[in-house]
Design a protein that fits this description.
Length: 752
């Protein structure tokens, strides 16, 4: 369970255990090598002492100390990783507040100190149950009603003490525990008594036992056995409570305590339904995936770049073990697009289950988890059947996902190619069966945010996707069209992640899959097909602009359906702002009654073309900054409207300096007016407008409030209302509107 949910924490825990084992091995070797030296001294009066000291070989004490230091550091790293990975995983479900602040496992010596650490946002983004558990186990807590919790508290206290002592320069040493010392003397000397000394540190010479002989004379031979346990010990602050309280036992207890924390974090996390963020690669972070080819670390020659720019499709391909590199010729120059291998799988027992989770997590990470429907089972006769390996549903379009994972070790290329083709055929049959079931009646499913929603599946237009998970997929496997009424696309898991990372929109990925309606000729060539279509979109002529939009002051603004540059690469801050807005809207619901209608609202907002999202995000960031400096006593507004086509939902975004009853009413009037104006040249009965209002906050609870309003059909404004709304919003129009995309869709317009 730990490895599945917290792979980094699991790795740190393993390293701590390895360091502990290395310490034990080295200590055993040192003891076998006569590390402990003893002496027996008898005085003329018959009294004597048994002493011992450590004869450290050069560098061995420091080596042991470094192993212990590494063990302690890895244990702390494990605890910190539990918090960090929790925040990362659940950021799919709830956006992270104050992401610039460090997340770590807090340990304090007082309730006030613990609250101060929490105030630094050290656990913001974890579960409340995580925070409660960590608080209950703080060393300052005094309730002794639970033995397990007491051990956890004590273990955290040991970790704090050890870390401080190591920082102060303390070294590993040994602890001597005399148990049964023995003394043997030749006559006439007679042993009167022998008494063991208290246990203690062997850092210097230490007396282990004292004895007395009667009738001792010069020349009497005296031999002794120390009868002492010598244990490896970090003696700084070590005060054993009994003979069984050894340093090794304490260290074992601390490792067990950290393991229990990890298990508890994982168990609590497993109780939360919904998707998680994809795992990051274990090695160095991926470099920029979109850079000018002339600045690439591959050092493309001018001749290579010139040849590429003049080629028919302006696309080159280089594939290595860890990534695919495409060289793309665009109107802005030649760029290098790195397509990394698929993200790591979680540590499930079956590769198929791990791949299934990874596919869902990728769609939730780069898209919205609201549109990711996790696999569900329903009763069929006396048995049950699973509804695919998951669905994507955005508005009236859906994708049935089937995942095929290669278990075991791969064989020859011919064998693996045969396996792939066999799996594609089997998955296609499963997809067609699933679509037949979905077309019969609606289904109740749980989405990636853990919400149960009803899918009107008969009304959804479906395509299928078979995703191949293979540790070393064979190259040049030709894909044949599978029979059936539903189009099926075959992808590597790498290519599935490429599409989501490239577009950062579930709506856009689903639209792409419906657009291609079939597999690329060769498995693994999806990124190349994407760029061929992107080049065609860039060269396409935008469709005609609706005259009504021009009368409203709009200006045409066209963007390709499929951008060449990855979404957000032109302004990551702005693109992230657009995603944050969607997350805030998705998580603002108050109860299950809102979940299903809210799906349609989110689908409408996610339909905003990818090419407009940076524009929107920058507008929102700048507008929030501008309205916060409004003069006292005034209300500042900034608006922008997007229309991607005459039959598409109109999306309006407004930023206001204050949220009051008056500004709410004004925002509603603005949206109603803009929706009404569409009826001058269209039937409002089938049209929808969605409005989003952001108003900044200054209380530190959050950065802004988000208000959403939806209008469908004719608002039936009276003449009086219309005049008031027009006087309010059209007399001094300051909004700007944008639309649309081009490629295989109608053109749109921009409204300044």
């Amino acid at each position: 369970m730990i490895r599945e949910n917290y792979p980094r924490a699991h790795g740190h825990l393993q390293k701590a255990q390895q360091a502990k084992a290395q310490m034990a091995s080295l200590w055993s070797a040192l003891l076998d090598g006569d590390l402990v030296e003893e002496s027996v001294v008898t005085h003329p009066d018959g009294s004597g002492v048994i002493s011992a000291w450590l004869a450290w070989p050069a560098g061995r004490q420091e080596e042991l100390t470094e192993l212990f230091r590494g063990c302690v550091q890895e244990l702390w790293a494990c605890l910190d990783a539990l918090v960090e990975e929790s925040v990362e995983a659940f950021s799919v479900l709830q956006r992270v507040r104050r992401p610039e602040r460090s997340r770590f496992f807090p340990v304090a010596d007082s309730p006030e100190g613990f609250q101060e650490l929490l105030a630094e946002s050290c656990m913001d983004g974890t579960l409340r149950s995580h925070v409660a558990m960590v608080q209950d186990c703080q060393p300052f807590q005094s309730d002794n009603s639970n033995e397990i919790i007491d051990r956890l508290r004590m273990s955290l206290g040991h970790l704090v003490e050890w870390e401080a002592a190591l920082a102060a320069g303390a070294l590993m040493s040994a602890w001597a525990t005399p148990v049964e010392p023995q003394v043997h003397a030749t006559p006439p000397a007679v042993l009167q008594n022998v008494e063991a000394e208290p246990p203690g540190n062997l850092d210097g010479e230490r007396v282990l036992a004292r004895y007395r002989l009667s009738s001792f004379q010069h020349g009497c031979a005296v031999e002794a056995q120390a009868g002492t346990y010598v244990d490896l010990c970090f003696v700084e602050g070590f005060a054993p409570t009994d003979i069984e309280d050894t340093f090794d036992r304490r260290l074992t207890q601390v490792v067990k305590a950290v393991t229990r924390f990890a298990v508890s974090f994982a168990w609590l996390s497993s109780k939360v339904p919904g998707s998680r963020r994809v795992l990051a690669p274990s090695g160095p972070g991926e470099r920029d995936t979109w850079v000018e080819a002339a600045r690439s670390s591959r050092y493309w020659s001018p001749e290579e770049l010139a040849a590429l720019a003049s080629s028919d499709i302006g696309l080159g391909r280089v594939e290595n073990a860890d990534r695919l590199t495409l060289v793309v010729s665009t109107a802005s120059g030649v760029f290098e697009r790195v397509v990394p291998n698929a993200t790591p799988l979680r540590g499930h027992e079956r590769r198929g289950l791990a791949a299934e989770v990874a596919v869902q997590d990728a769609a939730a990470t780069w898209g919205l988890p609201d549109f990711v429907m996790v696999p569900s089972v329903e009763r069929k006769g006396r048995g049950v059947r699973e509804i695919s390996d998951g669905l994507l549903v955005v508005g009236s379009r859906g994708v049935v996902v089937q995942i095929k994972a290669r278990e075991g070790e791969p064989g020859t290329r011919e064998k693996e190619s045969s396996w792939v083709l066999k799996q594609l055929a089997a998955a296609s049959k499963q997809i067609h069966g699933t679509v037949r079931r979905l077309k019969m009646n609606s289904v109740q499913m749980t989405n990636g945010r853990g919400r149960s929603v009803r899918i009107d599946s008969p009304a959804v237009d479906w395509v299928g996707v078979t995703i191949i998970e293979h540790p070393a997929p064979p190259s040049d496997v030709p894909i044949t069209v599978q029979p059936g009424a539903t189009p099926v696309i075959a992808l590597l898991r790498r290519d599935w992640e490429f599409l989501f990372n490239q577009l950062r929109s579930t709506h856009a990925v689903v639209a792409y899959l419906h657009r291609v309606s079939g597999s690329a000729p060769v498995l693994g060539n999806e990124p190349e097909r994407y760029y061929e279509l992107a080049a065609a979109d860039a060269a396409a002529t935008p469709g005609p602009v609706d005259p009504a939009w021009e009368r409203r002051g709009g200006q045409p603004y066209s963007v390709p359906l499929l951008p060449a540059a990855p979404a957000g690469s032109d302004d990551d801050e702005a693109h992230t702002m657009a995603r944050i807005m969607l997350e805030d809207i998705a998580t603002s619901l108050t109860g299950p009654d809102e979940w299903e209608p809210w799906q349609a609202v989110l689908a409408s907002l996610d339909s905003l073309p990818v090419g407009h999202r940076t524009n929107l995000g920058r507008f929102l960031l700048d507008a929030l900054t501008a309205v916060t400096t409004a003069e006292a006593g005034t209300t500042a507004w900034q608006m922008r409207t997007f229309i991607a086509g005459p039959d598409q939902d109109q999306l309006g975004f407004a930023v206001c300096s204050a949220l009051t009853d008056r500004t709410r009413a004004a925002f509603s009037a603005w949206l109603q007016l803009r929706h009404h104006e569409r009826g001058e040249d269209a039937d409002l009965g089938s049209l929808t407008s969605v409005g989003v209002l952001l108003t900044p906050r200054a209380d530190g609870y959050r950065e802004w409030d988000t208000t959403v309003q939806v209008i469908s059909g004719d608002p039936e404004l009276s003449d009086a209302d219309l005049r008031v709304y027009q006087n309010l919003w059209n007399a001094n129009q300051q909004e700007r509107s944008n639309a649309s995309e081009h490629g295989r869709s109608p053109g749109g317009a921009s409204f300044p």
